[in-house]
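Lab meeting, item 3. Inverse folding demo.
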């Protein structure tokens, strides 16, 4: 149990790394003279762009070794960011911090699954719940630290936390087997990393930069495909793309975060503009979403044990229903209660679907579990960025109802990809045995 707690701690640190800095952005702007946008997007771009490379390195070099390296990079970059004398220094340190997080997450998830054994789904539920706790508490923790100690401690606090996690990993987590290979696919790693970084930046941008960024990302993706065709030991082995369980799980992770990320951003704006709540009061309303993610994760294994595809379809249906309910309920009874209730259903759906997609995606062979974890997290990261960017572009003219309708449409579209013939590994083995 202790290794699971330690490894979930890595997920908590990563999620906090994204959200905890947001309340400190005004103070950072006053002190260093930066708008703060790159402080957030720099971290997200480095994190999302390096996940696949980090997952492959974990498979090849050992997940615990790469996790420990990621913790060291994360701690060092956090210290550099907290002591930053200028805005460029801070942005650069945040990018390195995101790179450290990228090394931590797929390797920690791979080790968690390896330690969980036959409690795979339960461990994944813990992982999902911890992510929700980090997402919900990050704003509060960041605000409190900024008020009491200043914005620098929002970043410096990561240093002792990372040290404690490193000690926990070294003393409680056993190494996982490495995957043999002929060498590291440097060209493939470079092109896929560049493609993903440009894609995350593009979907987070505005105006013509979006089109230019998407075009550049597409060209880099083509270059990556050409490089992989000739690579002796490709960074993404061919069986990765032919595994319908994994590709479906990654696609559902993208849909999960695109739909719920969009809906929550719209809800935050609705709470302030339509209900007249202060930012802090609006944040408290949003806690119903995070609490429901935890609850949905906890009950996920009980409603469809061993059937991750059912978890995904159930969760996506709940997300779509919640988004539609928010449209109808806020039109009929615009109040804090109706908003909280809709967000709770939305969070429960995300918790159930996320457990299903992560369980399905990490149920493949242990030799490529790092790559599987990386692809799932990459889908989630890009889904968040894309969903939020698109909905903000549309709700500027269409209002909150348009945003929630878009979230419902995204979740409904996900139902078409949530049935990959995703029979659980145990049931599939039983069928083969019967033949």
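The presenter then showed the designed sequence:
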């Amino acid at each position: 149990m202790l290794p699971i707690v330690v490894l979930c701690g890595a997920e908590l640190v990563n999620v906090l790394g994204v959200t905890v800095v947001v309340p400190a952005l005004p103070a950072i702007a006053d002190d260093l003279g930066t708008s703060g946008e790159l402080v957030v997007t720099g971290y997200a771009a480095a994190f999302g762009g390096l996940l696949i490379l980090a997952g492959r390195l974990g498979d090849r070099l050992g997940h615990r070794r790469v996790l420990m390296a990621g913790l060291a990079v994360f701690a060092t970059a956090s210290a550099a960011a907290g002591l930053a004398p200028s805005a460029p220094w801070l942005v650069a340190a945040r990018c390195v911090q995101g790179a450290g997080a990228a090394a931590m997450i797929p390797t920690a998830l791979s080790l968690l699954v390896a330690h969980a054994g036959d409690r795979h789904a339960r461990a994944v539920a813990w992982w999902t719940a911890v992510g929700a706790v980090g997402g919900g508490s990050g704003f509060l923790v960041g605000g409190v630290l900024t008020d009491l100690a200043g914005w620098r401690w929002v970043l410096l606090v990561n240093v002792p936390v990372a040290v404690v996690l490193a000690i926990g990993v070294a003393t409680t987590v056993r190494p996982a087997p490495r995957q043999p290979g002929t060498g590291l696919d440097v060209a493939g790693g470079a092109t896929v990393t560049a493609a993903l970084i440009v894609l995350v930046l593009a979907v987070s941008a505005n105006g013509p930069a979006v089109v230019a960024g998407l075009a550049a990302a597409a060209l880099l993706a083509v270059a990556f495909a050409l490089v992989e065709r000739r690579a002796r030991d490709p960074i993404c082995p061919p069986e990765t793309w032919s595994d319908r369980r994994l590709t479906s799980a990654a696609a559902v992770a993208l849909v999960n975060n695109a739909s719920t990320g969009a809906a929550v951003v719209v809800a935050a704006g609705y709470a302030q503009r339509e209900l007249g709540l202060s930012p802090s009061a609006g944040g408290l309303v949003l806690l119903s979403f995070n609490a429901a993610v935890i609850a949905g994760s906890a009950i996920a294994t009980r409603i469809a044990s061993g059937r991750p595809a059912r978890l995904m379809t159930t969760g996506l249906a709940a997300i779509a229903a919640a988004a539609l309910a928010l449209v109808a309920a806020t039109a009929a009874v615009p109040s804090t209660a109706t908003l909280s209730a809709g967000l709770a259903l939305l969070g429960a759906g995300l918790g159930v679907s996320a457990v299903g997609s992560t369980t399905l995606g990490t149920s493949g062979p242990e030799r490529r579990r790092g790559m599987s974890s990386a692809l799932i997290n990459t889908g989630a990261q890009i889904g968040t960025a894309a969903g939020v960017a698109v909905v903000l572009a549309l709700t500027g003219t269409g209002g909150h109802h348009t945003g929630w309708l878009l979230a419902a449409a995204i979740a409904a579209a996900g139902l078409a990809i949530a049935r990959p013939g995703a029979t659980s590994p145990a049931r599939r083995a039983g069928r083969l045995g019967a033949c």
